[in-house]
């Protein structure tokens, strides 16, 4: 390991940890924070490469925002970079929710003024990201129409499968409409991917092997940690549609079995809304209730493991597919649909759960100006949002 590699890993850790401490508002808001930090400020990827990565993570089961963060870390610093990026973004909320399990899960904090202020920050960040992505990814009437279609469908048909259906239809349209166009080559930062296809195939084999082998191992053994690993791994591997979808899966796995009471489960859900970072870290809370802080860390590892295996195993093949003109045409359609999906999510649930009165809108306007026009750092905007939320509440 040379000095430059160590500096790269340290930079990834510092940036991802800061995002893990300040990224409130759920997976769509996280993508906005990532866009602002990784693409707009640091230029680690271009707009199209980022949108392609987001599209891939929307296709895959698991926590999309965490997978995007892992993917950026891998592209920047190899597998170690991906692990560091995951740790930095996830650990703050893991620690917070384990502490909730020990001390605070009985307190009702989800309606606190400063949390409402952070929700308004999420509105601002996503709106800014949507503006930038729409300008670059929907330049013609065909892609604007795809984005509109994605917006309407995901607003009116809100299920776990609506997003993946819209993305598949947009890919089909782009495949046929743009396949004969002369498209630009891939950005060099992404084309020089640090993982081989052989390693990617091995990682995908491990993913599917664990998915099918763990339930069998659970049935033939009586070890509690195997049962926990199986429950968390399956929940993380089979969820489509974002972090909120994992909650009913976890409830089915842990409440009927008596590992956690319904009251404890609901208290932890409230706590999960109050911390930054991925909602999947709700598993950390459950693990801490079941087995203390060690259980919390084990649960975190188990529920995020399939997401890590999927994104790292798929990226080497994804990068090669993007060189195919027909596939690149499909991605043009997919990228346009992602813009529509983000606008849909900006309205619901982000706007509808954050902007309730003129004071909320006024605070959003001030925060938007701070971020977009005054070019203040995101952490300053987050802090201002928390203070503003307390004042207007």
Describe this structure in words.
Mean pLDDT is 85; it is low at 185-191. This protein has 2 domains: 3-184 and 325-392, no CATH class; 197-309, no CATH class. It has helices spanning 3-22, 27-41, 47-59, 64-104, 113-137, 141-156, 162-177, 188-191, 197-220, 224-237, 246-254, 262-273, 282-321, 325-351, 358-372, 378-392. Helices cover 78% and strands 0% of the residues. The termini are far apart. The longest helix is centred in the N-terminal third of the chain and has 41 residues, at 64-104. It is an all-alpha fold and 393 residues long. α5 (113-137) packs antiparallel against α14 (325-351) and α7 (162-177) packs antiparallel against α14 (325-351).
Rg computed from alpha carbons, rounded to a whole number of angstroms? 21 Å
| Low-pLDDT stretches | 185-191
Count of discrete domains: 2
Sketch the topology as an H/E string, one letter per element. HHHHHHHHHHHHHHHH
Q: In percent terms, what proportion of residues is strand?
A: under 5%
Provide mean pLDDT, rounded.
Answer: 85
Oligomer: single chain
Helical percentage: over 70%
Structural class per helix/strand content?
mainly alpha
Total beta strands = 0
**Bulk shape:** globular
Largest sheet: none
The total count of helices amounts to 16
Q: How widely separated are the two ends?
A: 51 Å
GO cellular component, one term: plasma membrane
Organism: Oceanobacillus piezotolerans
Keywords: Cell membrane, Membrane, Transmembrane, Transmembrane helix
Subcellular location: Cell membrane
